[in-house]
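Lecture 7 notes: from sequence to structure.
We start with the chain below.
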Amino acid sequence: MTDKPALPSETTAAPRRNWKTSAYLIGSLIGALLGFLSAHFYARSAEENNSGQPPKPISTADLFRLSLAAIALLRQISDLGANRNTRR
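Predicted structure tokens for the same chain:
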């Protein structure tokens, strides 16, 4: 039998891909669910408050506020992956 010792890159590559794949899948599912719920609540609110009429276009100021909130949320999520010892 010629058992060769595994190279360090071979032993660490599989687990790294595995947790990344899981993170991407879970993040994608959560993002899709949140996007769907956001669209549902927006449509339901517009329907209830506008007597069935289409809603007015979203203003630039509202889009700007939503964008800033989304950026803040993304930053908080990325901080979760930081090393706990170097966290702010």
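Points to note: Residues 14-82 form one domain. Residues 8-49 form the longest helix (42 residues).
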